[in-house]
Amino acid sequence: MTFGERLRRLRENRGWTLQELASRAEVPYETIYRTEKGLHAEPRLSVAVKLARALGVSLDVLAGVYEEQVGSEFFPTSMALAGN
Fold this sequence. Notes:
- This protein is mainly α.
- 57% of the residues lie in helices and 11% in strands.
- It has a single domain, classed as 434 Repressor (Amino-terminal Domain).
- It has six helices and two strands; from the N terminus they run αααααββα.
- α1 crosses α3 (29-36).
- The two termini are 19 Å apart.
- The model is unreliable at 70-84 (pLDDT under 50).
């Protein structure tokens, strides 16, 4: 799953529009749109941090190192497990 796909999934799971996430994260709508559509592979770190904070997840979750938190547990993705 790409950064943009994870971003879209997290946003949609919260029931937010692109504009709502842009407003909450204080990130341009176009940046989020292009990232979710795969037109912009990954945003700068400062933008990714704002997006993660607005979505209430760690940067590791948004970057794909860990899946979303379930209870007090984080579930590693296959990408994280491959590094071991």
